[in-house]
Write a structure and sequence with these properties.
The protein has 345 residues and is α/β, with parallel strands linked by helices. It contains twelve helices and 16 strands. The longest helix has 16 residues, at 27-42.
């Protein structure tokens, strides 16, 4: 059961003000939701944060036992019950299947989606010695790190960002790999020793993006959130990446990476037009193979481009990679993108 802590609200006619923005209580989640609140207030709307405690926050059990969706589902439960008006999610954490009860009214401008290395002594990835212990919560990161052939010892990692960084500073690990976006949002980019380029490691679909969600029936609120917060380029990029993920029928703990961006190009008549560039990969858990492909098209075809690239990866053998038994057989693959703090960092 979720426990909601909220400030006193004021009701004006049939519209409840201030708008109640649901968030988890971690530093990162509060920072993300606080940005949405501040933007709405700056635009002339009343808004406040409501902290929702989830079973995942209260449990020390591995995520595989408590369930990958426990964090987002708690917020959605409060949204459906009318206890909050808006939920702010790390978009990457949401299931790919749409829930008709809710609408993602806004996807604000995205933070840098790359993964980041935080290593001892200021080392970059190529300087870590063979056998160095590198912690990560994501099978996607683990698979791509193994595929680089650096001889690193990839170990499971759980805990909030401070806990993960402390494992490096205290010498328990030589390095950790986390999402750069999370560090940026809490003002800790100073600890990053290398931002990992997509050629080294493709990020998770929708990494660095936020989903601002409300009830589908709240049409007026949807319009306000869309008008004030939505970024068209980020929305197109995230739709493409998530469509790829959905087409591959992959959950968020499967080694799938994707990154899309809207870039300027020239059409046949020499006019400047926007194009959506999408890159994706599917990796064997043991790092023995990584399949990569890319596609370019119009931003309005974002969902179609994602499905097209997924089918190309399947033609290259992605299904066989994703169905290999290594994850079950390998004791060092107890990974998840779902820490009690935030699943995508």
């Amino acid at each position: 059961m979720t426990v909601v802590q909220e400030e006193e609200n004021v009701t004006a006619g049939s519209i409840r003000v201030p708008w109640r923005i649901g968030t988890r209580g971690s530093l990162l989640a509060l920072t993300q939701a606080g940005t949405i609140r501040d933007n709405l207030i700056a635009a002339g709307h009343e808004a406040e944060l409501v902290v929702v405690k989830t079973p995942g926050d209260l449990s020390s059990d591995p995520v595989q036992q408590i369930g990958v969706g426990v964090f987002t589902s708690a917020l959605r439960d409060e949204l459906a019950a009318g206890n909050i008006d808006i939920a702010v999610h790390s978009y990457k954490d949401l299931p790919t299947a749409q829930d008709p009860r809710f609408t993602i009214a806004a996807i604000p401008p995205r933070e840098d989606p790359r993964d980041a290395l935080v290593a001892r002594d200021g080392l970059v990835l190529g300087e870590l010695p063979a056998g160095a212990k590198v912690g990560t919560s994501a099978p996607r990161r683990a698979a791509q790190l193994r595929a680089l052939g650096l001889g690193l010892d990839i170990v499971p990692l759980r805990g909030n960002l401070d806990t993960r960084l402390r494992k490096v500073s205290e010498g328990e690990l030589d390095a950790v790999v986390v999402a750069r976006a999370g560090l940026a949002r809490i003002g800790r980019l100073d600890v990053v020793t290398e931002a990992l380029e997509p050629v080294q490691m493709l990020p998770a679909p929708a990494q660095g993006a936020l989903a601002v969600e409300c009830r589908t029936e709240d049409s007026e609120l949807i319009k306000v959130l869309t008008d004030e917060l939505d970024d068209a380029a980020t929305r197109a990029s995230v739709i493409a990446e998530r469509s790829l993920l959905a087409e591959l029928e992959a959950g968020c703990t499967v080694p799938i990476g994707a990154i899309a961006e809207v870039v300027e190009s020239l059409d046949d008549d020499g006019r400047i037009v926007d194009e959506l560039s999408l890159r994706g990969c599917a990796a064997a858990v043991d790092g023995s193979d990584v399949l990569r492909a890319s596609v370019v098209g119009a931003p309005e075809r974002a969902a179609e481009l994602g499905r097209e690239l997924a089918r190309e990866l399947l033609d290259l053998g992605a299904r066989e990679l994703l169905s290999t038994p290594e994850a079950a057989d390998n004791p060092r693959t107890d990974f998840s993108n779902s820490s009690p703090m935030e699943k995508n960092q």
